[in-house]
Amino acid sequence: MIQDELEYRLADLERDGLRRRRRVLELPCGPLARVDGRELISFGSNDYLGLASDPALIEAACAGARRWGVGSGASHLLSGHLLPHQTLEERLAAFTGFDRALLFSTGYLANLGIVASLVGRGDAVFADRLNHASLIDAVLLSRAEHARYPHGDVEALERQLAASPAKRKLILTDAVFSMDGDLAPLPQLLRLAERFDAWLVLDDAHGFGVLGKEGRGTLSHFDLPADPRLVYMGTLGKAAGASGAFVAGSATLIEWLLQRARTYVFTTGASPIIACALLASLERIQSGDERRRHLRRLADHLRDGLSDSRWKLISSPTAIQPIIIGDNDEALRVAQALLDRGLWVPAIRPPTVPKGTARLRVSLSAAHDEAHVRRLVEALSEDGLQKTKAGEDRRQIGSRRFAPGDDEKPDARFFLPPSARSAQTDPSPVFPNLCLLIHGWGMDRRIWSPCLAALGNVAETRFVDLPGYGEAPDHGLDFAGTARFLADSLPAGAILCGWSLGALLAMQAALLSPRRVGGLILVGGTPCFIRRNGWTTAQSPAMLKKFSADVSDDSRTALRRFAALFNQGDATARLTARAAVQGILSAPPASATLLAGLDWLRDADLRERVPEIGCPTLLIHGECDPLMPLAAARWLAEKLPRARLDVFAGAAHAPFLNDPERFARLVGGFLHDIRTDQAARS
Fold it and tell me: Against a cut of 0.70, is the pTM above it?
């Protein structure tokens, strides 16, 4: 029965901690809420300036209802465009600095109308990966090609624009990202739009009224002009305190949208009451500098109060202050614990945010006072909320939080024999969305922990353990056997990301199973670590022999010396490396495991076979790597048929510890390029 299928799917949502439930509020929108008779401090509203219940807006709405009635009666192009609508459009255009503005019933409808009116089949939209759902749906409705670039990565966007043969191009982005609170790099995006003759569509839902001179929005924040290629969308149900949205732009653009945007043409005009209230709201926004200053003080108070806690706040200059937790159930647990203390902070989970980045989304309002924020800080600082659901204390690594042992369990299918795997793995190539992380000698999978949250924004990640570590299959300490086993177990199109010794394992697997490996990411690794047979850039055999002797004498001390090779770069990078390695050294691998890894390094030599690796390859190398010289990485990049090299200045043997966010952006851009290439081929 089709009804049964829905029941099963709802049960799946419940099991995965993804089922959402509405709460009925018994008070008007404001800093205080009442739910089921219980008083709460609410941090879940987008009423950033506290205007939703402002007396001036209420009075304007009442006066508007007495003069204009309740409904508009028709679409704007028939008889539903009333004088308050026209007056509001003119005021919005003047306020934002554009020629004209056009009202829409919602921001969702505005975005759908903009994109589908400007591009179609044969055109291309270049969209930030973290764009709002309305922007994603707008591209799908337009039927244009949809190219997504890693979040905020202007270089990746430039490559996509340069490679695109589309007759019309459109860059599409949130100006303020609703789940992270960070800003798009608008000056750089506008320069690219000018260079490639593209539209630049900005959704400023969370910046209008909050940022810029007199709250004029994110364009004003960056001091950008009202360029004719700009399409500016602002919503009126957040900082403006009412509902609806508008699009501002050149006179020609607005006239085109008025004629062709189906979500405008075929929609009944909004109530004139709303337009009257919004005219009062614009006056409040323009004179609201003190509200905006108060909002910034509240954000500073929250961040300062949580600076020494387990909680990681994403850097945000806006009223949106997200606290990353990661696990869905853990986010729900913390949200419920806060609710029990009279604090309502929504837990945001996939698909609204990427998998593994569930969070508390703290939305501040100028209607909050410092006592409200202090209550939240005190609650989050309690011992009971400083621990994970498993009761573990969280420890800080650089700017991130990390608990030893809180990594994911490896996907069992990577360790199944081929006979058992056939029912679980599609043998046909798939677009890569799965990145397998392979750690290096001496370190277990936790070495990846500082960059896991960032990687969760660009790919689904799983772990592959080396022999003698963690959950590795029972192959003894046979590294070559593990490479063969991995090659046989890979899902089609998988991306292998290997660090150090793990890079050798990844290359070996790619050579053994080229049709299953969609791409390689090699970090601090070369095809041969030992200087021999004309290989002049690697380490001497004497170095490896001495290292092996040190491991035999005192493996823990040898491992500490090896770990010291990571501590290059700035102070933050050194702190990150030390903290990561300290956690891993708490349970180091056995001496036999370490020696087996060194033996494989001594014997493995893939130099002659490197040109056979035909899949796309990204090499990421530390400029100051004392173990694998940069010259070796450059040699490898030249020999691989489809490779590019990115060097981290000042970094050592584990460059992803220096800048996890940059590392994740590189990985995301690489995966996107592979997807784009495969889509073109198909």
Answer: no
